[in-house]
Amino acid sequence: MLSRFMFFLIFIFSFGFNVSAEAAGTEITALHWGVSKENVFRVVLDCTGPTEARAVLKEDALLVAVEGALKPYVSKDYKVKSDTVSRVALQPEGAKTMLELPLARKLESGDYKVFVLKKDPVTKRPDRIVIDIANSNKGSLFDPLKPSDKLTPPQLPVKPKLPVKPTFKVGGGIKGKMITLDPGHGGVDPGAIGKKGTKEKDVTLEVAKKLREYLLKKDAKVSMTRSSDKDVFGLNATDAEELQARVDIAEDNKADLFVSIHCNASAKREVGGISTYFFPKTRYDGEAAAAIQRVLTNKFGLDDLGVRQAAFYVNKRSSMPTILVEIAFISNEKEERLMRSNWFRSKMAQAIADGIEEYFEKTGGER
Known about the structure:
This protein has helices spanning 4-15, 200-217, 239-252, 285-299, 313-317, 333-339, 342-362; strands at 27-35, 40-47, 53-57, 61-67, 69-70, 77-79, 87-93, 96-102, 112-117, 127-134, 178-183, 221-224, 257-264, 274-278, 304-309, 322-329. With 367 residues, it is α/β, with parallel strands linked by helices. The protein has two domains: 4-150, Sandwich (Immunoglobulin-like); 178-362, 3-Layer(aba) Sandwich (Aminopeptidase), CATH 3.40.630.40. The chain has a six-stranded mixed β-sheet with strand order 12-11-13-16-14-15, sandwiched between helices. The chain has a five-stranded mixed β-sheet with strand order 5-1-2-10-9, with no helix packed on it. Strands 3-4-8-7-6 form a five-stranded antiparallel β-sheet, with helices on one face. Helix 2 crosses helix 7 and helix 4 packs across helix 7. It starts with a helix and ends in a 5-residue tail after the last helix.
């Protein structure tokens, strides 16, 4: 009897890949997974360039062959909590990678999808392979697979919901100011994952919830893009739809400041530090970023990576001053340990709150 690994090889060579020169040399740099509120189990492979994938459904496993070499530091075997998938295993095979998803129940052809998502420089999302599996035995969540399902799903245009005239207030102190907090990622998107399994989406949510409490104590008003582990727009959203949904919450609440919280990551595990990003759409975006970065770096012994300008979606598409803070590097072993501690999350939240207060106290004048 052939082993599953031998089956992989036969599967690959029987189907083959139509690999372009552009896809040659692609590497898989990260593996993410999660179960959405719609009860869909999603696996995402981040890639350094365009690639392809082929899936075959067996009685007890879904096997996916990806054209791309596995980076050495990507963990190759994870146990997962899912009603359908018990484990996510990666097996390198030269320039290809084999993904094995053992099944706890039998799947039908309409119970899963495999597709690619192209790199999005605006949202910092790389090329990705996405595998969606219905995490339920109560019927299929998808239409039967068609050949087009292996391509990028249709990208519907996103129309930003911006007010005709900005309504944000500056100066006069923090009291009464509306601040929208955006914990990065969530739901099926875990964000970056540390060596110990720490997920960015969990860290950002906990920091944001603590930050909300500190801001309320300062008599500010607070709205949240999410207060639990969920997708803001919903399942199967494009990157632009998900990010625009977060911007819309800030706009609907007439926020005076929009703060997006993230954890940084790097292939170089020794890299660490704090940075704050802004886009100069108003004269105050840079001032808010500078105030928050200044307090953060004064209260922590982490490297100061500075205030940086970047056209991130939420920074650019919101009408009020907006900053995106990278609180530390989840890929750095020392900083991941800090992120896992309640002490660090509380101190980080308090420092961001103090930076926001400083911004409103020192900023004033005409818009």
